[in-house]
Design brief:
Number of domains: 1
Length: 162
Amino acid sequence: MKNRDNIQKDIDAILEVEYLDMQQHSEGLKILRLDDETQQAVDEITQLNISAATLSEEEYLQKRAAFEEEHPNFGKATEKDFKQSIQDAQRQKAALLQLPLTTEEGKELRELHIKNLDLDIRVYEFLLESDAVSKQAEIEAIENESFEVTMRITDFLEEYGY
């Protein structure tokens, strides 16, 4: 029982890092002066991303496609946006690596999250390249791998009652 308590403490610490990162990102968006339509789109995509772990891949892709159809220009990022996303992912990785986890399970979960962050960084780096369109297949492969890692994280969390 004590080991399960320690595992849950490790999981809670990891989820707290993610929560604080999302909260910080959300606060950063609030500083921007967004028109109502853009704010609505931000809220919708945030909700979709939060619920992604509870959706099948097909459901997620359908909802994402519907969102993109409704908001075709949403998320057209600039070089500055990609660089900021890389910095955010690196900051979250650093925070995760500083956690004093005590269980192998907690360390495994942290490694899954770090792998996901590394995959995100690779996509952003591809997008920064001038020939990113030619790398679309590679980007999609990375996104598929990221989805698989996310599903492993979800399974892991469900195993421990999250």
